[in-house]
Amino acid sequence: MNPLQNALRARQLGPYVCSRCTKQMRHQRRCYVTSTAPSIPEIYDVVCVGGGPAGLSLLTALRSSPATSNLKVALIESQSLTPTSNFSLPAPQFSNRCSSLTPASVQFLDRIGAWKHVDRERVQPYEEMQVWDGVSGARIEFLWPQGEKGKTIAYMNENSNLTSGLLRRLDELGGVNVFEGEKVGDIAMGEDGKGLDLRGWPVISLKGGRKLAARLLVGADGQNSPVRQFSGIGSRGWDYGRHGVVATLQLETVGADDGKVAYQRFLPTGPVAMLPLPGNHATLVWSTKPEFAAHLTTLGTRDFMAMVNAAFRLSPVDLKFMHTMQKSQAGELAWREEHTTFDKLRIPASVIGVQEGSIASFPLKLRHADTYIGERVALVGDAAHTVHPLAGQGLNQGQGDVESLVKTIKYAVTHGQDIGVHMSLEPYNAERYAQNNLLMGVVDKLHKLYAVESGPVVPLRSLGLKAVNALGPLKHFLMSQAAGTGVKIL
Q1: Which GO cellular component terms are attached (predicted)?
Q2: Which of 257, 262, 332, 469 has the smallest set of CB atoms within 10 Å of its CB?
Q3: What's the pLDDT band for 449 if we cut at 50, 70, 90?
């Protein structure tokens, strides 16, 4: 046993503790650390920076597995977790930050015991998706074949509902030291001193004064990840020159099944999607030019609703004209609807309300780290990749990262390997990088393909869309991939 392991045993830290102490550690609740900063670094097996869905899922998965439950783990989150823990909105209000969870992601959350803590009354599964070309009208209908009716394509859920459920599961498991409201001041390689040889270990200095040394440092800290910057891992990509506009909508009630279908229309300025929430509510994700996004966010409620309804009903030319109007879009839409023919059964129900304060916008980017691992460093979620929202796969990619990384850590622990070294982490990088890179490439090409408004590309892409819609086995395969239940493409 090396000097560091002896020191860890002496201080009863990490997995190298006696059986009696191990049993006590299993019953500790999630601990919010507020004590005075120690003079030497505290030793942890895993330190995760970032308390979003990816970071919380990682710690929950580690604590819920017998193979890794004895690891000493910590969470560093710059914001207070109290609002997330106490997430509650009166019905029928919904957060405008929603994600489409695939069945594969839900199955993973269920296996680690977190899904039961998510408020299911705020989750909306859907079994059908209508996608069409805003220029040509070519359409593809994603719905399961007759023999598979009742299968879910995805679950719409508020991000805060998910993180709240994960925090409740962590409270149930216990054994996580949480440094909330603590910002990372610096990350540097440790040194040999005071009886601990921390050379080659990341040491995280918090602005509050504490220092944490990590056998494995996990960056779940977003697209501007300090952990990625510390590790020297590069990130490549570009800005799309588009903004995403989100809002929580109230729909006109047409039938019992209305609102249980997801709709997406590809416009030259970007795709617009209306995704179902419980009751007659839906969440809007509209990717468009920055100047159009800015205009939309300044409109009154009535005119904003008119623009959303127009986005699913009118031609791109008509919609472009309405973007130039400073007001009175509602009257313009009413007039143009009288002179426009569209299939009311294949478009979403009319928007009749917008939740106050729910309209917001944000820039869209593509970013991909050069690798997901370094020596004693691993990246997950947005710290590793940021994708265009048109496929609704961002959060699911992060959950896939976490599942793969936890599997890799389990293997290292059960085979007596050091969980932080590059060799132990390589299986995670090999499994996830290729899959994520493929998905990001497909989504990027789709965005660029449907940004073309005229020319030979339009009929060709329309022909392809119609062909896929006519080929049942191919469409079934694509649905399985989108739901995360098909065979992985490597």
Answers
A1: extrinsic component of mitochondrial inner membrane
A2: 257
A3: confident
Backbone angles phi and psi of 140, in degrees to 5: -130, 135
Contact 409, 62 (CB under 8 A): yes
- State the Cα angle at 376 between 398 and 441, rounded to 5°: 35
> Is residue 157 within 8 Å of residue 118, measured between CB atoms?
yes
Say which DSSP state 199 is in. Answer: B
User: Strand 211-219 relative to strand 202-206: parallel, antiparallel, unpaired?
Assistant: antiparallel
The pLDDT score that the predictor gives to residue 43 is: 95
Q: Strand, coil or helix: what is 187?
A: strand
Cis peptide before 125 (omega within 30 of 0): no
Pinpoint the alpha helices (H) of 338-483: 394-414, 422-450, 457-470, 472-483
Residue 208's Cβ-count burial label (10 Å; 0-12, 13-18, 19+) is middle
Give dist(CA 349, CA 149) in Å, integer: 23
**Beta-sheet pairing, 360-369 with 235-251:** antiparallel
Beta bridge partners of 274: 263, 284
pTM comes to 0.87
Give the CA-trace dihedral at 462, 467, 470, 476, to 10 degrees.
-100
Only one residue has tokens 């970007």, namely 270
Nearest CA among 167, 179, 174, 172 for reference residue 214: 179
SS (H, E, C) 250-296: EECCCCCCCCCEEEEEEECCEEEEEEEECCCEEEEEEEECHHHHHHH
Average pLDDT over residues 369-383: 97
d(C-alpha 131, C-alpha 140), whole Å = 5
Q: By the 8 A CB rule, do 119 and 254 touch?
A: no
Angular region, 14: left φ>0, alpha ψ -120 to 50, beta rest? left
What pLDDT sits at residue 391?
80
Domains annotated for the chain, with CATH where assigned, are: 3-87+162-234+370-444 (3.50.50.60)
Torsion sign across C-alpha atoms 149, 154, 157, 160: positive
Q: Mind listing the pLDDT tens digit for each residue in 237-271?
A: 999 999 999 999 999 975 544 548 999 999 999 99
Cα–Cα distance for residue pair 219/221, rounded to 1 Å: 5
